[in-house]
Amino acid sequence: MTSLPYAGSSPGPSTAELARSLKRSSPRHGERLVEGLLFLAAALSVLTTIGIVLSLLQGTVDFLREIPLTDFLFGTVWTPLFANGEFGVLPILSATLLITGIAIVVAAPLGLGAALYLSEYAGERSRKILKPVLEVLAGIPTVVYGFFAISFVTPSLLRPIFGAEDIGITNALSAGLVIGVLIIPIIASLSEDALSAVPQAMRDGALALGATRTRVARKVVLPAALSGVTASFVLALSRAIGETMVVVIAAGSIAQLTADPREPMQTMTAFIAQAASGDQPTGSLGYNTLFAVGALLFLITLLVNVLSIRLVRRFREVYE
Q1: What is the pLDDT of residues 210-219, one digit of tens each?
Q2: What is the mean pLDDT of the chain?
Q3: Sign of CA dihedral 181, 182, 184, 188
Q4: 8 torsion bin: left (phi>0), alpha (psi -120 to 50), beta (else)
Q5: 3-class state of residue 85 by DSSP
Q6: In terms of Cα–Cα distance, which of 233, 250, 6 is closest to 111?
């Protein structure tokens, strides 16, 4: 019969002795290697971010030496590649925000609804089938989404509603709708992971108190997973702001300051794609404009992340 270690009336080893014993019997060389690799991965990510900021800094500073910051931020005419160009960024900034807003309006309810269904209502078999199918949307090349917008969304969906004379083949509305479809898998997949991570005991306790499944999902599960759901929204928002190919194809390349989504528009990423593929000499004002727009895009994304962190800290509910 095998006796249990430290059984009986004699006192067992102290915690320090037990730790030394475990350390002698379990070499930690592999663990230290893993820790080193993980630290290297984290440091590389931070250094990459610093490198991106530095690469944008010099061109942005050179641009602002020639164009005042107020003219750049509040000007309403954007023709930086013309001979006597104007550098007011508001037309492409407003187009970026408008198309991103349309995309979020489409993706937020559909993505969160899909996540709630997969997490709280779908059976295990249905979840295994539906979730990979949903995530396939994220793997479709964005150029396909662009052609989908101009070949189906505008002629078959929007023109019957608004009339062919009131909406062109390129417009901000079709680009926003298609980007919304594009980012649905980001919200749905990440939110479903966060909702599924909520302990089952919390659901069982709420159901035992007489709550319906809908009330449990809305009052218990969703608040508990708020940080993960918010993270999915932030990632989707950043993805929509940075989307390039869809807006290049579907939104047009006319930088105009308007709130009418039926009009063609040019976003910040579309301008960068257009100007970067041209013949702008290195160090010219047109070349430095790329860095100024890129820096502004970076600051907007940073602001979105900072606001999301503050919102999560403000409204998150912690359960112990």
Answers
A1: 888 889 988 8
A2: 86
A3: positive
A4: left
A5: coil
A6: 233
| DSSP 8-state symbol, 210 | T
Give this prediction's pTM: 0.83
The H or E element containing residue 51 is helix 29-66
pLDDT band, very low/low/confident/very high, at 308 (cuts 50, 70, 90): confident
**Cβ atoms within 10 Å, residue 76:** 12
Contacts of range 206-214, beta carbons closer than 8 Å, 24 or more positions apart: 213/120, 213/121
What is the crossing angle of helices 268-276 and 285-315, to 10°?
A: 150
Q: What are the two backbone dihedrals, phi and then psi, of residue 7, each rounded to the nearest 5 degrees?
A: -80, 160
Query: By three-state DSSP, how is residue 266 classified?
Result: coil
165 secondary structure, DSSP code = T
How distant, in Å, are the alpha carbons of 42, 81, 114, 255, 270 from that of 94? Answer: 35, 19, 30, 10, 13
Q: Are 172 and 263 in contact (CB under 8 A)?
A: yes
Eight-state DSSP code of residue 170? S
Query: At residue 83, what is the residue type?
Result: A
Closest CA to 103 of 282, 315, 250: 250
SS3 readout for 106-117: HHHHHHHHHHHH
Mean pLDDT value of segment 134-154: 89
- How far, CA to CA in Å, does 314 sit from each of 20, 226, 309? 43, 11, 9
| Amino acid 1: pLDDT | 42
Q: Give the closest residue to 247 by CA, choosing from 73, 92, 87.
A: 92
